[in-house]
Amino acid sequence: MATDIPLYREPVETVPTDPIDRVIRYHVQTKHHFNRYARALGYLDWANQPDPFRRFEGALLVSLPLLKPEEEPVSPAYDATYRADAVLPQPISLRTLSRFFEFALALSAWKKAGESEWALRSNPSSGNLHPTEGYLVLPQFDGLNLKPGLYHYAPKEHGLELRAEFALEQVARLLAPFPTGAFLLGLTSVHWREAWKYGERAFRYCNHDVGHAIGSARIAAATLGWKMVLLDGVAQNIIAMLLGTHRTDDFQDVEPEHPDCLAVIWPLRDVKHETLGVKHKDVAEIPLFLDPAVVKNLAECAWHGKANQLSREHGVHWDIIDEAAEASWKTSCEQTVVSLVAPQPSHVSPFMFHEGLLAGQIIRQRRSAVSFDGKTSISAATFFNMMQLVMPRSNRPQLDRPMPWDAWPYEPAIHLLLFVHRVDGLKPGLYFLVRDPQKLSFIQQSMNPELTWTPTSGCPDDLPLYWLLEGDAKKAAIQISCHQEIAGDSAFSFGMLAEFEGRLREGGAWRYPRLFWESGLLGQVLYLEAEAAGVRATGIGCFFDDPVHEIVAVKGLSLQSLYHFTVGGPVEDGRLMTLPPYHHLSR
Q: What class does CATH assign to 359-568?
């Protein structure tokens, strides 16, 4: 008697229920391998390319003034932004808010090729897709003709859209624990903007971009003499409530926004210039959280605007991104505080020597390199300076750490595996920067025990930079970076290795996005420092994850490579025309 041959069925994978196991599953599944890449559509669906500009139809748009570089407030020297006492604090006004957004999230130029035009921005983004949206929570300021409320920043129009009108007393109550002049910055992500091109790996890239935006905002604040601290004690549903991303009617049938983070920004008190027209309120500590009851009352107000649709169709929906976002959703509220400290002597690297360079000049000219010349080298002093600037100095109180690490409320988790190609005075080869010296033993135990950890000759005594292997590392750097020549044609490139499974097991699944935020923040520092050094940088999101780990024989999931970066002499594409950022506006 004939029998039916059973059909083959793929084994059903058991999806873990523990949030930490779920984010680890996402991370492992979205790795690139030599024989296969993480899942994506496989082609670019140009007909449904997402609109890079979110708008809220029906919301009042308040135009910000388009300021020339020489207009007040004038940008300080680039080096001065790294010294807490070197920039005169500016009052809150439409002009200072305009300058803040110009340096943080605004358009920096347009590129044109034939009939095609596309915008670049101050904050870099994977594939120039810009999933990050910015918001302000403003109280009433004297001389600022804006209603207290929530505003969405519209970068194409360089304006603020009024999303919600907050009661004066309630927003004052929300900001009461903070110094006088404080306001809130919120960041959200539209995951679809990255998923359209990069598929399931997009959740990683969106969080890189959050980190870049945190960095660009902190540096923009520093140019105005303002402080900024990430309020990462806030539960994510409270962020959603404050920023309105939970309002399903306002996002009906359009791409949602994922609420990422909040930061508080305030003008530094300047003892030489009493109060900047505002009575100073002494605050000994800065809370890194908000009162949920106050936020709930605040959100029961008049809301304005409906979000625009970014793509007509979405094709494939990557469920694993939603799963990772859900698993890493922060449900806890930590009532942590940081102490305000008196300005201390600057911790800027002694190698800094950017005389005559203005911060605004460097921010405006920043670009992501698309090709390097394979010849340009940098000096050892320049290289050491770059490494100094990414050191958080975590042995100091948070608000006494060098900018922008004073905004970051965590001990460093990211360390650098460096491929040095063309640094005058350094042997080519493999190096390692331990950004938290207390973790040296852990890192050594997590890697090949036969590596020689030799302190790098000539570098500052307080810079934990180690030489691991001598030799030409260009071929290896190119190979692990998805065969991209920019990783070997540069002066140096590196992978950002994160303390991974241990951090997640200790802190929770919600720490997963924050590992990427830290890597983006670190990258933002080097983007600007490369420009100041006369070279250029670019982030590399495409790399073969495990082959990176195999270079130094990383054990298990103790360390994981999250982001790659490369710095060198750029090759400009002469076929492209560069246009001013707001040439399309008449005001």
A: alpha beta
